[in-house]
Amino acid sequence: MEKKILFLQGNEACVEGALYAGLDFFAGYPITPSTEIAEQMSFRLPKIGGKFIQMEDEISSVCAIIGASLAGHKVMTATSGPGFSLMQEALGYAIMTEIPCVIVNVQRGGPSTGLPTSVSQGDVNQARWGTHGDHAIIALTASNHQDVFLMTVEAFNLAETYRTPVILLFDEVVAHMRERLVVPEKDEVSLVHRLRTSVKEGVDYHPYLPREDGRLPMSDFGGVHRYNVTGLFHDMWGFPSSNPGVVQGLLRHLMDKINNNTNRINRFKKYDLDDAEVVLISYGSSARSALHVVQNRRPRGERLGLLELQTLWPFPFDVVRDVCRNARFVLVVEMNMGQALQSVKLAVDEPGKVFLANRIDGSFITPTDIRNVLRVIQGKGV
Amino acid sequence: MPVKDYIRERFFPHLWCPGCGHGIVLNALIRAIEKLGLSKNEIAMVSGIGCSSRISGYVDFHTLHTIHGRALAFATGLKLGLPSLNVIVPMGDGDALAIGGNHFIHAARRNIEMTAIIMNNRIYGMTGGQYSPLSGYGTMATTAPFSNIDHDFDVVDLSIAAGATFVARTTTFHVHQLIDILQQAILHEGFSVVEVLSQCPTYFGRKNKMGSAADMMTHYKDQTTPIGSKAKKENPALIERGVFVQKEMPEYCKEYDKIIERAMGRSESTPIS
Amino acid sequence: MAKPKLKEHVINLDWCKGCGICIAFCPKSVLELDEKEKVVVARAKDCICCQLCELRCPDLAIKVEME
After folding, report:
1. Chains interfacing with C (3 or more CB pairs < 8 Å)
2. Which of B11, B63, B78 sits opposite A67 (nearest CB)?
3. Among partner residues B4, B21, B30, which is closest to C58 by beta-carbon distance?
4. Do C55 and B13 touch (CB under 8 A)?
5. B74 touches chain A (CB under 8 A)
6. Which helix or strand (DSSP H or E) is residue A339 part of?
7. What is the mean pLDDT of residues A372-377?
8. Tell me: the pLDDT tens digits for B9-56?
9. Does domain C6-66 have CATH number 3.30.70.20?
10. pTM score
11. CATH superfamily assigned to domain B3-264
12. Which residues contact B168 (CB under 8 A, 6 or more apart)?
């Protein structure tokens, strides 16, 4: 069978990935530069018997998908920075109640209304720390449409595996750029389906009692098990508890289920890193320019390599430390004031050798921008 | 089934204060559901935050205790995701009409089938007695120590304007009417609103010198009247009780089913106009 | 239809908070508060089984059982 090859926007590649993963419920509110996702969903979902609803704002959008997830659906919403800010309280609710969902944030320039139609990667830390209280989070990103597709599928798989919200942090360039997508055939990419409880009717079901492997089987609302879901600290039945042991146990569980599986959750790509003197670290669309620099300078004998991050949270500290160990310089390439830079500095043994190549003006960072910074670091002048 | 079969007995006595009207709403709701003969598995209760929202913890249904003001948004996703569920959304003044006011009018506008119960006690009880959008001009609250200058919403007028297809009001004194209205609201195929005047003797009552819980309920008896009564004509200040609106309109989930049919019946390249 | 006949008032003293609503609105003054501020049946024979105490109890603490 011939593969289905499409020429489309990154936002559309995200839709393809979500549908491939089994998405059947989407709620959203239009916001540039993510709107194409909602538009596509409104067209595609009813064709497969799925549901689309345009809610009154981003808050209700994320709340609606959490509700629909409890009804047994694979769910997603999509937004941009301002809308993502509005979603933070409910994001914390989904973390606390362990309800799988996927939230796409196509980043634009900020703060506030910022630069709606321009590129930025300024929400890396918002994705990590936007909601209140201690918590762990999974955030994925991608630099090209094939990876947008795969990371979207991955987001659904991780959401189901760990019963947690997963954030897809795309950026305006990837979202609006058009390029090729080869849609994988059915079963070519493995999918994680909802793990439902095997507990029979009439037997006590514990929605918040992890199995030995750490996973928590779910029971759909409307089914034979009636239980409580609350954003309050709760016991294994889902009922509120302020018992210090229960509180501490739940918080540790919420952190550990993600952080202890960092190596399983981490996705990244390595380019020419084995002998690299200068290690570039980048993600999203800026990784395209970084890769161009590496591929352009290698033939001229410059030992450059690139680590492209696809999992931003939990941050892959071990991977970063490893690839930077023998580097003279590390150059973080991103379109913000150094949000991944902070984590890279924490990861490496010598933070002094870590530098930043960035753009924060709404313009896409070019290979020339990166090379100019490289020349300064290497003492060659601009 | 007896009342105790609908509740999670181990959490009783409940956390509400002595004389709190919310317990009477819980009491009436259970009886309404019992009279309708609904199975517990087909009912989902979605609530927000506040005194009123704790009702969901006490009933043996599928219960979703969410965040402040957003109960209707969660409920919308749950209902559209599983339209066979009977979704009941009890809310307080804040959940329904302050932080949650926008979701309220939009849920009404969509006419999505669910029952919104607004337990109107004219105060924020959980946080200790601050004024709400239902307190009204001239009332006292911990954040209105010199008297409240905010005017209140008329929940019934607001609901009708927003497009709710079933709108009713009663009080915790009028328990038979309350049970009857709740039954009608649950059966209604569309967005139904039931405003229940529910006393808060601890904060609203004390701050406004309304006396005991029973005194406040007596006030409900004296200050309300059936819709269109002679008493209302003679004393326009009386608050009307009863079913104000009950009409048939296309219901959201059923309409979406039609969208699915239309979408499935067309080729991929033809946009739905 | 025959008049309902009282069997007993079942009062859950653990749940009763002594708010007095049942007492205030009992048409036959059947109920009273005891010294512990819990409701007690003082005049059971006067009960007409209207169940208003049961329906208005915010604590679900009263059940009027009939024969």
Report:
1. B
2. B78
3. B21
4. no
5. yes
6. helix A339-347
7. 96
8. 999 999 999 999 999 999 999 999 999 999 999 999 999 999 999 999
9. yes
10. 0.97
11. Thiamin diphosphate (ThDP)-binding fold, Pyr/PP domains (3.40.50.970)
12. B181, B184, B185, B192, B193, B194, B195, B242, B243, B244
